[in-house]
Amino acid sequence: MNPKSLHTRRRFLRSTSALIALPALESIGFKTFAATKATTPPKRMVFLNFGWGVTNETWFPDVKKTGAAWELSDGLKPLARHQKDITVVQGCSNKFANEAHWGSTFWLTGANRYAEPGQSFHNSISADQVAAAHLGKDTRFASIQLNSPDVTNSGHGPGLSLAWDLRGKPVAGLENPVQAFHRMFSNETTPLSERQAMLEQKRSVLDAVLTDASDLQRGLTKTDTDKLDEYFQSIRDIEVRLGKDEQWLSVPKVKPPVTEPKPGLAGKEEIKVMYDLIVAALQTDTTRVLTYRQPVGTLLQSLGTKVAPHDMSHYSPGDRMAASQMRDTTQSELLAGLIDKLKAAKEADGTSLFDHIALAYGSNIRTIHYLDNCPTLLTGGGANLKPGHHLVVSKDTPLCNVWLTMLHGIGIDPKQLERHGDSTGVMKELQG
């Protein structure tokens, strides 16, 4: 291949990748690291998900006590010191959800798994990745996905994390606190020149693959053409990631404000340390968008219960229900500790990290096999939501209405993002 044509192709691909990655879509163009930072602290977004739902009788607040005069349920009482800053929304669900053991697969997408004819599984872009396109321009990582190796026992369903890309493909997550720590804060030991050469080699491989794929376009059926288009999009996605890597290649990672986690953490301690890493990532502006697909199975084990997670989700009065309630209380305690740390972390202008974060906490499963009234708790001042309220909306209101409201709240232009997933509009009663 002519080196000049290769260079031209590469420049074209780079520009095409940047444009195609914009969901609405000018917001993804990268600025140089040397750009002057804004004096106003940036917005951040965090999504925390647990798989098996909650104890229906003791987690949800009383539906008769709404607005600012609501009362915390037993399952939420560990959050009492933050009651004025949390809002619980009841009545939302993903209307296409039909798998009772999939607590996170469609949680942030609201997709219809049967939307593609002839396919048994389809997904769409998740709310965090829409946020990453808007908030991730100036950070080393547009988003970070935290995960747990105990996915099967935690009721999550298909996926590699909570995140799904523009094509509805799963985005890989970091499996444990040690891996997450090193990804965020450990500098590369490979010399810069070698890393530059590796990036250049990856680009050359992409160019060759794209040329071969382009030669196949002639005479294809519509089905094959659609598959090839999807393949081209995956190539463009890789180009965008390579561009991001190249942008930060010579910039050292920041010094971590936390110590390296001990290996082998599981259950309650894993969640606690992952929460610490979330705060550290946001404090250092390593990223502004994070998701965490949390463990439930190992959480129960760490609490000393013998009840299996699936059995716990099918509780009845007795040991199973006690295990479910203990799970709820512990998760609320951990969330309260995270909020404590977000409030304690100070910004340069004297405000707190909490003042600029939009945080959602919940599951796609209500309880047992029920997929209506998804447990949804919101907090933080970053999306201009109404704090300290209990909202009960009409049955089957799309959960994506909550995500759309939050996405507009972090600054995405409503004209550029008119809907997300199966949303029908923003929730005006949620806006501050």
Q: How many strand elements?
A: 7
Task: Give the overall average pLDDT.
Answer: 86
End-to-end C-alpha gap: 58 Å
SSE pattern, N- to C-terminal: HEHEHEHHHHEHHHEEEH
Structural features, described:
The protein has helices at 3-20, 56-59, 127-135, 177-185, 192-215, 222-247, 268-283, 297-302, 309-313, 319-344, 399-409, and strands at residues 44-49, 86-93, 144-146, 289-293, 357-362, 376-379, 390-398. It is α/β, with parallel strands linked by helices and 432 residues long. The N and C termini lie far apart (58 Å).
Structural key phrases:
432 residues, alpha/beta, seven-stranded mixed β-sheet, 9% strand
SSE inventory with pairings:
Elements: H1 3-20, E1 44-49, H2 56-59, E2 86-93, H3 127-135, E3 144-146, H4 177-185, H5 192-215, H6 222-247, H7 268-283, E4 289-293, H8 297-302, H9 309-313, H10 319-344, E5 357-362, E6 376-379, E7 390-398, H11 399-409
Helix pairs in contact: 1-6, 4-7, 5-6, 7-10
Outline of the structure:
This protein has 432 residues and is an alpha/beta fold. The chain has a seven-stranded mixed β-sheet, with helices on both faces.
